[in-house]
Design goal:
heterodimer, A: 469 residues, alpha+beta, 7-stranded antiparallel β-sheet, 14 helices, B: 434 residues, alpha/beta, 5-stranded mixed β-sheet, 4-stranded parallel β-sheet, 26 helices, 9 strands, 8% strand, binds flavin-adenine dinucleotide, binds iron/sulfur cluster
Chain lengths: 469, 434
Amino acid sequence: MKVVTNRHIEEIKAIVKTGRVLIDESDRFSYSFDGSFGTYLPDIVIQTKNVDELVSLVKLANRERIPIYPRGQATSLSGGPLPVKGGMVLDLSVMNDLLEIHEEDLIAIVSPGVLTAEIHRAAEQKGLMYPPDPSSSHVSTIGGNLAENSGGPRGLKYGVTKDSVIGLEIITPEGEIIKTGGKTVKNVTGYDLTKLIVGSEGTLGIITKAVLRLIPKPQATGTIMAIFDSLVDAGSAISKILSSGIFPSKMELMDQASLVAVEKFEPLGLPTDAAALILIELDGHPLSLREEMEQAAALCRTVGAREVRIPKDKAEEAELWKARKLVSPAIVRIKPTKISEDATVPRSKIPEMCERLLKIRDKYGIHLVVFGHAGDGNLHPNIICDKTDQEEMLRVEQAVAEIFTAAVELGGTLSGEHGIGTMKAPFMEMELGVVGLDMMKRIKKVWDPNNIMNPGKIFPEPGQKLELS
Amino acid sequence: MTVSLKDLREELQYDKTKNCVQCGYCLPVCPTYATFGKETHSPRGRINLVKMVGEGKITDLSILEEPLNLCLGCRACETACPTGVEYGSILEAARAAIVKRKRFSFPARLLRKAMLNKVVPSKKWMNVTGHSIWLYKKSGLQKLARTSGIVEKVPYNLGTFESVIPTPVSPIERSQAPTEVKAKHKVKYTVAFFTGCIMDSMFHRINQLSIKLLSEAGCNVVVVPKQTCCGALQAHAGEMDEARHLAKQNILAFEQINADFIVNNAGGCGAQLYEYGHLLSNDKVWAERAANFSAKSRDISQILVACGGLPDMQPRHGERVTYQRSCHMTNVQKVTQEPLELLKSIPGIHFIEMNQADMCCGSAGIYNIVNYDASMQILDEKMKHTKATNAAVIITTNPGCLIQMKLGIEREELSHSMRALHLVEYLAEASGIS
Ligand SMILES: Cc1cc2nc3c(=O)[nH]c(=O)nc-3n(C[C@H](O)[C@H](O)[C@H](O)COP(=O)(O)OP(=O)(O)OC[C@H]3O[C@@H](n4cnc5c(N)ncnc54)[C@H](O)[C@@H]3O)c2cc1C
Ligand code: SF4
Ligand code: SF4
């Protein structure tokens, strides 16, 4: 049963004067998926960049109890924009007109549909940098990044999206426009609603504008590759370097399974017999950089690195980072389905988490690949499987649950950057506790009394379980 | 027509859609997504629609018709895809499935068959004269579009094309075209030249220049008799049987001589020749022969570079030149460097790469005729970047792109300051060959 009736459609068409209203089946199916699992057919899809029209649509939805699903480019890996209860999808990727760099204030003002990579480009042209760098930055929108609180390799040094946003304009679920934060880096007036909205996964409102913080672009960068015969040693190297006073801009881990997969996909001369390698990037002033590079290389050796390589030129350096980028595509050539988790642990627990992951792999007989932004404890355990193999998927479900348990037991979290969406909702209580989760639910209830804004996300329905088969 | 879901999955190559992880990495490179601005016209969206049919969620295949018809088939998405989704095969299979179920009205069926199976592949028809056959073809397609209803937009704009069609070569001159030309200097290779149907009829002069350039660079050139149309237009329209039939005819014809390479000068045709191996891979009798044919097939730029380039080119005195890549050359044959290398070997040239150089110009076989409006929107996007280069010459490597870019120049009223040329024409000009 559709929640959007013909009468609603007429009203929606009357509201949307500058954009498009899509009701054909081919269009609705095209907005039924994201980068994760499952397809849910929306009743209607609306594209408009006009804030007044969006306000009217939200008011209509609130009055008629129609679910609204904000959507960027649907690269979410946690089910964020899926219209699980039907209703309206608002395609906000069309709001891509505003991208201003204010050099003197070190800020950028953007509309939500701007691609993150466009912000990178515009900032760089002025010698500045927008730090958050999800691997999907050339496809994903800043609105999606804000809603998911996305991170990336640079998160180690510069934090995730929330660390780079200081102001927002949003439409509340009741159809009011509010502004949070502002253009000043220091701002302590009242509750920090900006931080509440960032990472709320579209459940508290529609972001229509954002003020982002920029920093001067580091003068120079350098890369080190350290090769290890044990995954646990590699984990130790990571925590040792971090506690030594050196602050790398990126620290990425690839385990043997990822090395083998990349090498098969595109031979780059990676050491496939090694158990793991870490790629370290340092940035800063050229002089201090040189010294820190030597220090970091020496540290890796003392922790048991079999070999430490420093690329001789920028081309060789680019090759190494290319290898890291290729892990994701390379591993899906093994089997078609990739369950990409982003459970995160405190840095000191990285070696222990590595051990737990290996045990889980063997216990459930699954193909587990570990790589990711290890420097911030954000390991990406990826399970490679085939979703048409029901028996295998059941084992995968159990393994995923155990990975979450391990992360939380070690003092970590379910998600370092991909968000909760539909995929991790069943595990929320495990991390937050009954009261912790209830506080969040109460906040949601106050903001969105009719539960129209992205319902079905973050908060588990009674009895909801992770289902992959 | 009732078929089991299992059969439908096979017919649609459903298994290939499973490799799509819906990451969206293909969105930024897709010209139809950029131009029409909805997921329905993105590669990810189109693959998902096929997936939905394979999973029984969509049962009416006509839902796929418009999204698939509006795909240019440029395959930029394949190049961008990190997981290696074979989009071209998925598209081909889905179009064939739709064509199979489509009940064309009787006259439309006749006309469609006549156009794709008789006129384009036939030397006799294509030879009458370049110009009139072009118009005949166009107006035939116009009628087809009008009566069959397979296309969304009916093109009433054929007059526009007329102004950019090259002056035809007379039938007498055509019949006197040489069938064998010896290498000018030391012989490096013996090559068999693929004339193509549209290239041969409308761009006869470019074919003749190609042969001269090959000879200049050190090739013995043979124009193989009994060769026919490459079959690309048929394959893209979902007429796979006809495409296979033409492929076999060509394989037979080219097996008659023992050339080092089979050389073509049209990106779209070249891609089709390059894919014969794939097209006939399930045919016991032909698979190996087709693979051999494809292995020998090369774009002319590859051969000219392999020969060490062209001798004695005249300086161009800082002429600003840009290059509109042929999608099929880029994304299927993966020939991207050679044309640039040749251009840059011309002394005194000022080469400027346009922004989003890899985006399709909207020509795409007969797309610009059957989807005229859509194609012009895509062209307008392209022209923004082309204009920004301030180039005096736009180089192309495919007849369709050449016409489209000429059209773009007309639409922007730039014909006083900008011209579009095939790479071969420009190289010939620089080499003093006419
Ligand atoms: C190959 C690949 C690599 C990835 N790498 C990373 C990575 O390195 N780091 C990382 O953090 N993530 C990564 N992701 C996940 C994903 O790209 C991010 O979550 C991204 O931020 C989603 O942006 P989007 O525009 O696609 O948003 P969508 O997926 O469309 O939406 C995401 C969420 O944002 C909400 N939303 C979107 N726009 C708005 C708005 N204007 N107002 C309110 N809510 C809104 C939606 O409702 C949804 O809940 C990756 C994904 C893929 C496929
Ligand atoms: S073939 Fe070209 S137009 Fe078609 S989906 Fe791929 S990129 Fe888009
Ligand atoms: S890039 Fe490839 S895997 Fe990603 S959405 Fe496009 S076709 Fe699918």
